[in-house]
Design a protein that fits this description.
19 helices
């Protein structure tokens, strides 16, 4: 009879041999999966691969690949394929979390598929997902993203009562964006008063959206500076602080109005706060100061711009251009 040690030895050897010949399963790295989707040119295959990849919770957390894929399909007008991807995601437990549901609503909005966004929002209770002001704001944003601006106000006025949810400053900002999209700037500015009446404070995005759109709509050219001035003054009083978007939005107003003193003050303020604004705007202020015979103020602004790392080609005295042209002309003659 074989000894116990020999029997154990044979069993261990057999197990080792089996293990050595059994293929090991390898998991495809997430980076490879994502890269393959970006490279896939056939839309139907892209959708098949995408749905398969979405079985992984790690993949479902990859926001960028979702946005890129939906954008590609929307550009190709493959809306049925977009629906196939997003509807398939409602089978996952993630849908019970409002943040995940908001992503689906937002993606439908960006694809211009508002009806599908609204349908998803309506389905949330049966999908065991609570609706709050966050998902309500998502459906308002979907209207703006899909350029259905005219639907926003009625939703904003009617849905909160039906749903039993409140509105917040983000809700108002989205409605303001919708009014701006329709070119109804007077109504957009009036919403600031309504917000304050409800104890809500506009945020920096609210103010910047208004300032940018007021300029785009040509309110300064039409002599309607009051709206822009009121928005800017409210922003200053709010202590929210200014960012690059604020300066980029308001400085063109001031230059067109030829209020170069305030424009100079804003340029200095931006540089003191290390907020680098567009060099073309700073140059416009320099040119305006020179045109209004405020040479010393213009020189000081150019010097400050140099200290704040603006290139010579971005901000300079107009006379420097004239000197350069003269020198080139003289060199050409002498040559």
């Amino acid at each position: 009879m074989a000894s116990l040690s020999r029997i154990l030895s044979r069993k261990l050897s057999t197990a080792t041999a089996v293990a050595a010949t059994t293929p090991t399963s390898t998991r495809t790295p997430m980076k490879t999966i994502v890269n393959n989707l970006f490279k896939q040119k056939k839309y139907t295959q892209l959708v098949t691969d995408f749905k398969k990849s979405a079985e992984s919770s790690r993949f479902r957390a990859k926001h960028r690949v979702y946005e890129d894929t939906i954008r590609r399909l929307a550009s190709a007008k493959r809306f049925k394929l977009i629906e196939e991807i997003l509807e398939d995601h409602k089978k996952y437990n993630d849908i019970t979390k409002e943040g995940f549901a908001i992503r689906l609503i937002s993606l439908y909005g960006k694809a211009g598929m508002l009806e599908h966004a609204v349908k998803t929002f309506d389905e949330l209770p049966e999908l065991k997902c609570d609706r709050t002001v966050k998902s309500f704001n998502a459906i308002l944003s979907a209207c703006v993203e899909s350029k259905n601006y005219d639907k926003v106000e009625s939703m904003f006025r009617e849905m909160p009562k039906k749903l039993g949810v409140g509105v917040d400053e983000f809700s108002y900002t989205i409605v303001i964006q919708a009014f701006c999209g329709m070119g109804n700037m007077d109504k957009a500015v009036l919403l600031l008063d309504e917000m304050e009446g409800k104890g809500l404070k506009p945020n920096l995005v609210t103010y910047n959206v208004l300032l940018h759109k007021l300029y785009e709509e040509g309110y300064c050219k039409d002599g309607k500076m009051d709206g822009a001035k009121r928005v800017y003054e409210d922003l200053v009083k709010s202590d929210l602080g200014l960012n690059r978007w604020t300066y980029d939005a308001y400085l063109p107003f001031l230059c067109e109005k030829e209020d170069y003193d305030l424009a100079l003050e804003l340029c200095k303020k931006s540089m003191d706060n290390n907020c680098k604004i567009d060099g073309k705007l700073v140059q416009a202020v320099v040119d305006g100061l020179v045109k209004n015979s405020k040479l010393e103020a213009a020189k000081r602004l150019v010097s400050l711009a140099r200290l704040k790392s603006y290139a010579h080609s971005q901000v300079k005295m107009p006379s420097e251009d004239a000197d350069q042209k003269k020198k080139k002309s003289e060199d050409a003659v002498s040559g």
